[in-house]
Write a structure and sequence with these properties.
The chain is of the alpha/beta class and about 110 residues long. It contains four helices and five strands; from the N terminus they run E-H-E-H-E-H-E-H-E. It has a five-stranded parallel beta sheet, with helices on both faces. The longest helix has 12 residues, at about 20-30. The protein is globular and about 35 Å long. The chain starts with 11 loop residues before the first strand and ends in a 6-residue tail after the last strand.
Amino acid sequence: MTEATTATFQRVGFVGLGGMGRGIVRNLLRKGVAVVVHDRDPAAFDGVRADGAVWSELPELLERCDLMMLCVSRAEDVDAMLVAPDGPGARRRSPTPLTVVDHTTTNP
């Protein structure tokens, strides 16, 4: 049997604080994970502020995190964040590799 390898992420970012995203963020926070969050509607932050989440604008979130989880409603939103030539993902300059987990339930 081989020993399992687990990655440790120091800075976790989460984009999308709707019903599903908010629940995931709260669970991470309960488990002791520090989470930096963003949503296109800043008022959505109110749902996780008291739990210990920290707000960040999207470009800064991408620079601050080495794991980013997405829970947005459209594949186009994922593309705009990560692969659009003028999007925040294209401007990311952090030397730390970024791992992305897409919880979005749209086209892959």
